[in-house]
Amino acid sequence: MTKNSTSSSGAQWTGMVPVEDTALAVTDTGGPGVPVIYLNGQFATQGYWRRVIAELGAGWRHITYDERARGRSERSADYSFAAAVRDVDAVLAARGVDRALVVGWSYGAVVAAHWAARNPERALGAVLVDGAFPHDWLDEAMELRIRKLFRRMSWFLPLLRPTGLAPRMTAEQQAESNIELGRLSRERELGPVLDAITVPVRYVVASGTSFGSRGDEQERIRAGLDAVTSRHANIRSTKVAGNHGAILRKDFPAVAAAVREIAALDGARR
Prior knowledge:
With about 270 residues, the chain is α/β, with parallel strands linked by helices.
């Protein structure tokens, strides 16, 4: 897809961006403002960002998209994490954006961390919303638990697909995606990625449990961030009251504030 005149005309664009064997549903508000690309939760859609976008307002260039087989995007033969990172580049290239501030929630936060680490000249900074915590939470028992959970949900997931609340992926594919995330989140895997990020990073950290977690599991996972922030001055965090599932709905002002802070730091650097 060729570049267009969105940034100069200020016109909003919504359409499908061909990528490899699929096509992604993308929305670009256009305009001359700082480009911000939003990366969704593992099985979420771009609509989850509407409150953050409204809070920031029209002075920014907001780019959202549905990941493969999520929302209005098409199915693919590849639902790997590597494909998710490649798709960030594909969407930015299709919209003619060279540098962007990346914002990710949950699974999208891990994607954002990897993209920022690999693209120090293209990333204005990163806002990571309750995700990308280096912690060894995946063991054999947890893997079995994940597979069992998605098998139990397999009968009603197809019923949710027309509503957009479930991806067009099989229960097994969703389980594999979750397990891959667990492997990538291990301290020995994610720690070096975070260490490699040279641009400013702001975490917005939720409280309490998340879907499928038990007891204080989620808080112990979040505690893995402490060692990272203690050794990197460019990585800071803010704790909010909302839980993992509600953070974009209830704590969107904190997410928007983190975006503004990162943009201001980039402006000061330049």
